[in-house]
């Protein structure tokens, strides 16, 4: 069972593959969009311990040569220091402009690896293999990449679109419930800003999404990706309509900053509180 969502932009287009067990076939699925047979996989320690071997086996099967970079998990890795280390490792691997960077992980890995791909050798091809619900429905799509600065969240970065997104719901089996809920908040956001029927659907199927029903997860992710793809296609560089995707984020980012980007508040949790704050503000003005 596989679904596809196409992201059509003025500058490029790509496919989001959504299904169960896709990681085993990653090499074969991604081969058509690779510029050469050489890839570098960037992941974090937790995700690498769970899924790197699976990905490597599929790259082997497709006859691809790969190197890996594994960094510490957590928001703290979206830093200039970590970016420098990743860039150093990429260059140590003697990459060329046809080497594809594959981000295997949540939003932190996608944002950091995507930004490293955007600036190494003035731009490398890039693929997203998201492993959190938040990354499956949001951060892996749309090309926003970057790191945090002491000035604030995501203050250094660039737009760098992936060549493909491989959204395998099987990886959600190991994701803690708290992180599932954090990603679910982004689904609720799409339904609120773009699809009232999806809001009703989530009211009926939300528990199944969180309980790990593959079929329901695929459908929820498909509809979420359609919402994001439509908004990003209309406004790739956030000159207008795309800002809708930031609903609740001004409050959310402030909350993340005062909790020092720590596990006290996950990104999706901060944003969910942000929606509430935002709606209260609107109802009072
Ligand atoms: N680029 C964008 O458009 C965009 C959009 C939304 C959010 N973001 C960014 O995404 C980041 C948050 O991403 P996140 O919520 O995915 O957090 P994350 O990447 O930190 O992942 C959360 C934790 O779950 C672990 N993990 C990941 N996949 C797992 C799995 N399958 N099983 C078990 N553990 C797993 C990770 O190791 C990490 O410890 C924030 O930095 C936010 O700014 C970016």
Bound molecules: nicotinamide-adenine-dinucleotide
Strand order of the largest sheet: 1-2-9-6-5-3-4
Largest sheet: 7 strands, mixed
State the end-to-end distance.
47 Å
Number of helices: 10
Poorly predicted ranges: none
The helix-and-strand class reads alpha/beta
Fraction of helical residues: 40-55%
Mean pLDDT metric: 95
Strand content: 15-25%
Shape verdict: globular
**Radius of gyration (Å):** 18 Å
Overall number of strands: 9
Detailed description of the structure:
This protein is α/β, with parallel strands linked by helices. It has helices at residues 26-30, 45-61, 80-92, 107-119, 133-139, 177-194, 196-211, 214-234, 249-258, 267-284, and strands at residues 2-8, 13-19, 38-44, 65-71, 100-105, 126-130, 144-149, 152-159, 164-168. It has a seven-stranded mixed β-sheet, with helices on both faces. Strands 7-8 form a two-stranded antiparallel ribbon. Helix 5 (133-139) packs parallel to helix 6 (177-194) and helix 6 (177-194) packs parallel to helix 10. The termini are far apart. The protein binds nicotinamide-adenine-dinucleotide.
